[in-house]
Amino acid sequence: MRIINFILFGSILLLSCQSPKENPEMEESKSNESTEVSTPSLKSILDEKKAAFNERADEDVKKLYAQGIEEVASSGITDDAEQKGDKAHDFTLKNAKGEDIQLSELLKDGPVVLTWYRGGWCPYCNLTLARYQEELPRFKEFGAQLVALTPELPDKSLNTKEKNELEFEVLSDVGHQVARKYGVVYKLMQGVADRYQSGFGMHEYNGDESNELPLAATYVIDTDGIIQYAFLDADYRNRAEPEDILNALKELNK
Fold first, then answer.
1. 80, 126, 249, 254: which could form a disulfide with 142 (CB 3.0–4.6 Å)?
2. For the chain, where are the E strands, in sequence order?
3. Do β-strands 145-150 and 169-172 pair in parallel, antiparallel, or remain unpaired?
4. Rounded CA gap, 82 and 91, in Å?
């Protein structure tokens, strides 16, 4: 009897000490948890790019760019630009294929997410455009169309669209005609402009020597043409978070 009891006690002890790896149900649960990968925020992606730049860039260059951002911020442009509640300015611009696209016509089919990017030469712009492309199906769930404006010449904007495999409209706002209506155009500090020109030829991208660029602004415009969300930031490394855009679109559907 002692031998039987000893064997039973040993079996119970062995089962109680069984490692989680030997339990199929626990192992399956862990496997499911490990496959759930959350999508990183756009801010975290841009911050990673910013950190990489700060790690390798010359101190004088970092100081120059910081001064440029500060100059834009102190100009008051983010306060003077069109804001939430303002009537959006209608416009007609050509897309990457040379077709005319009119804002008021787009609004007949649903709200429009209108966003500006500086150019295909800007890594922060490309990261943002790629992320917005990923979020495009979610924007469309609310009947919204995404439209990107850029001062790039049509050939350059077509390259940007193809490079990033964008499935939304990219319109060339040459000379900042539309951006000026929305109040999102600023003039680069001369030192920054000189560096951009020597570095990648900004004048060739934009087809002029104005040294002007648009803020990385984003608006959500409802079907009545009223701006219901406005993202305006003097720092070109900051962009409208997709979740904030989606929240604005959700509000329109209530």
1. 249
2. 92-94, 100-102, 112-116, 145-150, 169-172, 185-187, 212-214, 218-221, 227-231
3. parallel
4. 15
By three-state DSSP, how is residue 114 classified? strand
**Contact, 203 vs 188, CB < 8 A?**
no
Q: Report the 3 state secondary structure along 119-141.
A: CCCCHHHHHHHHHHHHHHHHHHH
Q: Which fold has domain 42-252?
A: Glutaredoxin (3.40.30)
Kindly give the confidence (pLDDT) of every residue in the chain, 254 residues in length, as a single tens digit, with 9 standing for 90 and above: 444 444 444 444 444 444 444 444 334 434 444 444 578 999 999 999 999 999 999 999 999 999 999 999 999 999 999 999 999 999 999 998 889 999 999 999 999 999 999 999 999 999 999 999 999 999 999 999 999 999 999 888 888 888 888 899 999 999 999 999 999 999 999 999 999 999 999 999 999 999 999 999 999 999 999 999 999 999 999 999 999 999 999 999 88
Structure tokens at 112: 């429009």
User: Helices 123-141 & 42-56, crossing angle to 10 degrees?
Assistant: 180
Question: Strand pairing partners for 230?
Answer: 219
Q: Where are the beta strands (DSSP E) in 151-246?
A: 169-172, 185-187, 212-214, 218-221, 227-231
CA-CA distance, 58 to 195, in Å (whole number)? 13
Amino acid, single-letter form, for residue 172: S
Number of other residues whose CB lies within 10 A of the CB of residue 57: 13
